Each structure stands twice: as structure tokens, then as C-alpha cells.
Amino acid sequence: MRERKRVTIEDVAKRAGVTSMTVSRTLTGSGPVSNSVRVRVEAAIRELGYIPNRVARGLRSNRTNTLALVVTDVTNPFFTTVARGAEDAASDRNQLLLLCNTDESEAEELRYIELLAGQGVDGILFVPAKNGYEARKLAASRSLPLVILDRRVEGEPVSFVRCDSSSGSVSAAEHLRELGHRRIAILAGPVGVPTSDDRVSSFLGGFQGDQNLIDVLHGRFSTDWGREAAAIALASKPRPTALFALNNFIAIGALQVLHEQGVRVPEDMSIVGFDDLPASMMVDPFLTVVSQPAYEMGSTAVEVVLQAIDNPAAAIVEKILPTRLLVRRSTARLADR
């Protein structure tokens, strides 16, 4: 079977009766084009089935209009919502967004940064597994604009968009404290991950003199760890009266174990989670959570990285978005139980 010849910009120009430069201006908006000429060019594009070559255009303009979002766990509904916000914002700006998943691996971070630089992406939205120092250094060596999401990182200044984990954790601590809880287990993520470290320290700070009654259990941000941590907490003597799960996967795993062991929520155990689940995943909003504006985080990060692409000399941008405590039915006053 004879291979179909690829339609070129010259073919479009010939069909529309204009120059190739005029077709290029019509496509990119880089110069003035009359309405009548634009109509002819667009008609020729449709008739011929012309598809602009993004890579070739990138070679000429030094831009590919391609961004990448690198996250630690693409299955986490929080990052799914971040990705949706980023995708919508990128689409509005005629940008292609690539999605990469590292599984919380620093080696994978470096591999993706190298691959994305080789593919000519214009900028990266990056959720590091921990501090992401080596990945940030690699991106800088490739002159690749990078914006950190959902993390507080140390080292060289870098633009970031994250939520206020500290105030959110304090609000969770104050809520449980007001309900009379003192013996609490924090089901945390890995030591060294800024979001986990910040949430633990801020929650403990909200309890001041009662910190010695709080156990901190460190593991992964996963449902499996939520199950394991909840089992450890339930087996401890004396048993805590409340759990604080530092992300939605940990909270889901903990709830599974509580249900399996016949521990009623909130009658026997109160639980607060960090990160809400999308409304489409909840038949009955039940879990008291510290909610983060995940969609806004993604869309804001796209705007920040595009600013850096347009103006490499622009100042570092630091965006901290507010959290909200949503009190539902998974927490109760200790005296009422």
C-alpha cells in the first residue's frame, strides 16, 4: 500500500493562494493577517488535513509549547485533581501537558528530567519525592524552567506553589483538642518528605504540653501503610482515641482496618484526614479532612511556569494557598462516647 504523503505548510499556502509565511502567521498569531486571508488559510488546512509540526516549529521559535507535570503518585486523587487543573490551564494557553509518575523515586525524577529536556519541553511542574535537589540542579543545568508543587524545599531559591500544610495541621489539632482528645496517633508519611514533616511538627505544636501522649508512625503515603499504621495504633496500650492521617490514601487504609476490627467511627475512634477526595468518589461525605485546593494548585503552577518561560530573568514566585478544615462525621467529642 502506497504511503500517504504528509501535507506540508507549502501545500496549504498553494491551496490558499498565499505565502508559507502567511500560513505560519495565521497559525501562530505572530503577525497581522486579514480576516479574508485567515478564512482561506483555515479552509485549506481543513481540506488538506494539515497538522502543524510542533517539533519543527519549536526548532524555529525555540518553543515547543509543551509542559510536563511530574508527580509522585498519579493514582492519588489529589494529584489527579492537580493534573486536571494544570491541564485546563495549559489547554487555555494552547500548551500540551505531559504527565509523568515517579512512584516517589528520586532516581525516576532524574530520569524524567533528562528525558523531558531531551524532548524539548519548555517547562516542568515538579512534585519531588523529598527535597528534589538533584533534579532541580539538573533542570537548571539544562536551562529548563521548573516550578515546585506541594512541597517546601531547602537549598537554592525556586518558584513554588503549595498549600499551607502547617496551618491546616494546626486546625486539625485544635479541632481534636476541643473535642477532648489527648492520646492520638499520627499516621505520617516518610521522614524527610517536607509535607509530612511539616504536618507532624505543626500538629504537635497545636498540642503544646500534651505532646508526650501523641505517637508518630512513619511510613509511605499509601493505603497499605494506612492499614499497617492503624493496626499498630489499635494494638498499642493504652489505645489512642483519635487518628490523624496525613494523606487521603493513609486515611482510606486506616478506615478499612477500623471497619475490619469492628472499631466504630466516630463512636470508638475519631479520625481526621489530610486531603479531601473528589466529590465524584464520595457517595456520602463522611471523613473530617483538611482540604487543599488541588485544582487551583495545578492551574496556578502553569501560570507561574509560563511566566518563567516568557521571562527567564523574572523574580522567584512563591504561592502559598490556604487550606480548610471540613468537619464531617468522623470526629466526635470524647465525653460523648
Describe the structure.
It is elongated, with a radius of gyration of 25 Å. 40% of the residues are buried. It has 337 residues and is of the alpha/beta class. α8 runs parallel beside α9. The strands form 2 sheets. Strands 2-1-3-4-5-11 form a 6-stranded parallel beta sheet, with helices on both faces. A 6-stranded mixed beta sheet has the order 7-6-8-9-10-12, with helices on both faces. The chain contains 12 helices and 12 strands. It has 3 domains: 9-52, Orthogonal Bundle (434 Repressor (Amino-terminal Domain)), CATH 1.10.260.40; 66-163 and 293-322, Rossmann fold (3-Layer(aba) Sandwich); 165-292 and 325-336, Response regulator (Rossmann fold, 3-Layer(aba) Sandwich). The longest helix has 17 residues, at 294-310.
What gap, in angstroms, lies between the N and C termini?
76 Å
Give a count of the beta strands, DSSP E runs of length 2 or more.
Answer: 12
Strand line-up of the largest beta sheet: 2-1-3-4-5-11
Q: Quick one: CATH superfamily of the largest domain?
A: Response regulator
CATH class categorisation of the largest domain: Alpha Beta
Helix content: 40-55%
